[in-house]
Design a protein that fits this description.
With about 290 residues, this protein is α/β, with parallel strands linked by helices. About 35% of the residues lie in helices and about 15% in strands. It has 9 helices and 9 strands. The strands form 3 sheets. Strands 2-6-5-4 form a 4-stranded mixed beta sheet, with helices on both faces. The longest helix has 20 residues.
């Protein structure tokens, strides 16, 4: 592990490294990850975390321009089962691509076929998640499906943008061209005609500039505040500021503060009582 970090920052870095699905998940690859600057670990962690879906109830909406009624009617029994899970607030992460679970970060030493599987450009650039909705059985224990639901998933709303075959990922296919037009229409639905716009910009590696910039701000915040994290006066002020929003907030006798990501948002967590003090905000998904 890299030297020069305080115990609290070391624990924070290790918690992110432990949670990230790593390819390859070997001591040598992990050692390389541990050498990386905190901002790079944060950027990789958030790039993976944003591909996951927080568990909560949502209302279902449809983008009419993207729904093929013939496909919807044919697949309705399976779609209905899945959408009931959305409405009821079930965990939707098992219905995402397996790569979300297995490829959080691709490290040196990975096989060439793993290259790029830690980046989901549809999520990062357009905010679209894709879900399998096949029935789970002995022949299909993971519920994989040829057709996928592509959805814009926000804090309270699950908007189905398209129901399309897996062939949309073949960029030379006719299905891919149709899907591109649907995505374009969805992105432009609230933009005045003729007005220019830009997708979320990315670096040559596929990581978004937004997330990397956020990681830099998080690293600066941690570096600035960390020397005070166990200081009694700092903790007292933290709780006084917290009482402005939650008047009943009471500090424990022996506070235990750690650096923590509450979903995508950086802050300080008091472990014994679960008090979270947010410092940097990226998305409100909870």
């Amino acid at each position: 592990m890299s030297c020069g970090y305080s115990p609290s920052i070391k624990r924070f870095r290790q918690s992110m490294i432990k949670e990230l699905p790593k390819v390859p998940n070997t001591p040598l690859a992990i050692a390389e990850l541990e050498k990386m600057p905190t901002r790079v670990i944060i950027s990789s962690y958030i790039t993976w975390k944003i591909r996951t879906i927080p568990v909560k109830k949502r209302i279902v909406k449809f983008f009419p321009g993207g729904i093929d009624l013939d496909v919807f009617i044919r697949k309705y029994p399976e779609i209905k089962v899945f959408l009931n899970k959305v409405i009821n607030g079930d965990d939707l992460n098992p219905y995402l691509s397996e790569q979300v679970r297995t490829h959080g970060i691709v490290l040196p030493g990975a096989s060439p076929k793993s290259e790029g599987k830690d980046i989901d450009s549809l999520v990062l650039r357009e905010g679209l998640y894709h879900f399998h909705f096949g029935p789970k059985n002995n022949k299909n224990p993971k519920g994989r499906s040829n057709y996928l639901i592509f959805a814009d998933v926000s804090k309270d709303t699950f908007t189905i943008v398209s129901i399309a075959p897996h062939s949309v990922f073949d960029h030379s296919s006719e299905d891919s061209l149709k899907f591109f037009e649907i995505r374009r229409m969805y992105l432009e639905k609230d933009i005045p005609s003729g007005q220019s716009y830009m997708l979320n910009p990315v670096t040559c590696s596929g990581h978004t500039i937004e997330i990397f910039g956020y990681a830099l701000h998080c690293e600066d915040t941690i570096t600035s505040i960390d020397p005070q994290i166990n200081d009694g006066n700092f903790i007292s002020q933290l709780y006084e500021d917290g009482k402005l929003q939650i008047p009943s907030l009471v500090p424990p006798t022996k506070p235990n503060l750690i650096w923590y990501f509450y979903d995508l948002n950086l802050g300080i967590l008091e472990k014994s009582k679960g008090h979270f003090f947010g410092l940097k905000f990226l998305r409100d998904r909870l």
